[in-house]
Amino acid sequence: MAYDLMVLGGGPAGYLAAERAAHAGLSVLLVEKRFIGGVCLNEGCIPSKALLYSAKMLEQARHGAAFGVKIPEAALVHVDVLARKEKVVKMLVSGVKAKLKKNGVTVIEAEGMLKGRTAEGYVLVANGTEHIGRNLLIATGSVPILPPITGLAESIASGYALTNREVLSLKEVPATLTVIGGGVIGLEMASYYAAAGSKVTVVEMLERIGGPLDAQIADALLTQLKKKAIAFELGAKVTTIGINGTATVAYEKNGKTETLAGDKVLVSIGRRPFTSDIGLESIGVETERGRIPTDDQGRTNRPGVYAAGDVNGVSMLAHTAYREAEVVVNHLLGKRDRMRYDAIPSVIYTQPEVACVGETSESAAKKGMEVDAVKLPMTYSGRYVAENERGEGFVKVLVEKHSRRMVGVHLIGSYASEIIYGAALMVETEMRVEDVRELVFPHPTVSEVIREAMFEF
Ligand code: NAI
User: Fold this and answer.
1) Is 443 in the active site?
2) Does any ligand 1 atom lie closer than 6 A to the CB of residue 17?
3) For residue 7, which of 318, 298, 334, 341 has the smallest C-alpha distance?
4) Is the C-beta atom of 353 inside 6 A of ligand 1?
5) Does 339 map to a domain?
6) Which of 47, 283, 295, 346 has a Cα-to-Cα distance from 457 of 20 to 30 A?
């Protein structure tokens, strides 16, 4: 029998596509070599959020006195935090498995390899058996970039250097932690381990943290993280990791080579699509610098072969993957849909949280888009003031000059991660300043700063 759809990879793109397609009545096979739920559920988004929430609770407990709550001996017990993280992951993974089962998806937990095409469809080998599918979704995700840093392979093999996987399960809190890369993973893990008691230094190649973040937001985040005793070496490119009882990182800064010794080193310098060793060549799917290019319906260069999630290298975020997966399934079902990337929110779950959607001043300028920007402190919100002592959160809204359409919203401060979807909706639906002014926001909430910003244009 040939399946209507075979899905290779059981992360957010793969499991959601499988679930949705089966729910719509298609026969679906899902093949996953490691964990159902992929990196997001098992070694990324979810476990890191569990750790960061414990760090947030600790911080609140430590600063409780300012709010009339005295907790004299607040302490983080790392092993208990890890145990809770495991429990959270287990619960969510079993939830995904249950949904797949309920919808009638055939799941094989083994490595899958593509092996050409027959008259009936594409061939996928798993557990020594050949499976055939009329359509195929490649959702094999991404892996950490491991650059040509001298000594990196040895440091990883000996347990001194960690990737996103190991850093989430360290049995003990290292006294000192060096984080290579001040991007999303680096900053989130620096936040957790600093709260847990490590002396953390982030070594970042660029002069700023957070990659494509709005520059004012990135500066504010840097200031806040420094206040939490996280040290930063910016404009510092790591070249070597040496192990000699400790892990010594060598980096180039201002033309000089400097060194930094630490107990552990986290390597978080980005991820790359995973497309090797899955037999893509056997079915003629083209790759471009390791990623699988797709059109706005998730189609690759081969008929009936789709790709979604990190593997297409467009926007390596779980929520993008979900939407891409839905677009693919809708296309298979003959429903009109297409993928749009203009209003995809992104969040960094540090304390304070950062959340953004749409254009930054820099990206707008690059596109030749003329924008007006308004920056308002979150202290405009009654709830923010009630809940934050000397909080420095703010919102920055960008509006296209000629149309007065909202094109970007950037937040740093409490609830940013939960507020941003509303802002994404405004950007996605091209709301103008006047449209947002007419909306009623719940009071008192921090989200009101967005509405308030509308009256500054
Ligand atoms: P990233 O791309 O966010 O940041 C990597 C950083 O490493 C960059 O700032 C880069 O300049 C720096 N770098 C590169 N080479 C270097 C060198 N030799 N020395 C010093 N610095 C160097 O990558 P990251 O943090 O590894 O995250 C990977 C992916 O995971 C991202 O695509 C992100 O979207 C996703 N992710 C998303 C999260 C979220 O949405 N909250 C959380 C965690 C990960």
Assistant:
1) yes
2) no
3) 298
4) no
5) no
6) 346
**Structural domain boundaries enclosing 203:** 152-269
Q: Determine the residue type at 25.
A: G
* 262 close to 202: Cβ distance less than 8 angstroms: no
345 lines ligand 1 (CB under 6 A): no
* pLDDT tens, residue order, the chain (457 aa): 899 999 999 999 999 999 999 999 999 999 999 999 999 999 999 999 999 999 999 999 999 999 999 998 999 999 999 999 999 999 999 999 999 999 999 999 999 999 999 999 999 999 999 999 999 999 999 999 998 899 999 999 999 999 999 999 999 999 999 999 999 999 999 999 999 999 999 999 999 999 999 999 999 999 999 999 999 999 999 999 999 889 999 999 999 999 999 999 999 999 999 999 999 999 999 999 999 999 999 999 999 999 999 999 999 999 999 999 999 999 999 999 999 999 999 999 999 999 999 999 999 999 999 999 999 999 999 999 999 998 999 999 999 999 999 999 999 999 999 999 999 999 999 999 999 999 999 999 999 999 999 999 9
Return phi, psi of residue 251, to 5°: -140, 155
The CATH number linked to 165 is 3.50.50.60
Which residue of 142, 205, 319, 356 sits with most ligand 1 atoms within 8 Å of its CB, as the best mutation to test the pocket?
205
- For residues 88 and 183, membership in a common domain is answered with no
Angle formed at CA 392 by CA 391 and CA 393, multiple of 5 degrees: 100
Ligand 1 centroid – CA 184 distance (Å): 5
The answer to whether the CB of 224 falls within 8 A of the CB of 231 is no
196's tokens: 């847990």
Specify whether 140 is located in the same domain as 288. Answer: yes
Report d(CA 246, CA 253) in Å as an integer. Answer: 21
| Number of domains the chain contains | 3
| 138 and 9 co-located in one domain | yes
Domain-ending residue, one of 304, 332, 360: 332
The verdict on residue 357 lying in a domain is yes
**Is position 337 within any domain?**
no
Q: For the whole model, what pTM was predicted?
A: 0.97
**Shared-domain flag, residues 10 and 134:** yes
DSSP for 155-200?
A: HHHTTSEE-HHHHTS-SS--SEEEEE--SHHHHHHHHHHHHHT-EE
320 and 198: one domain? no
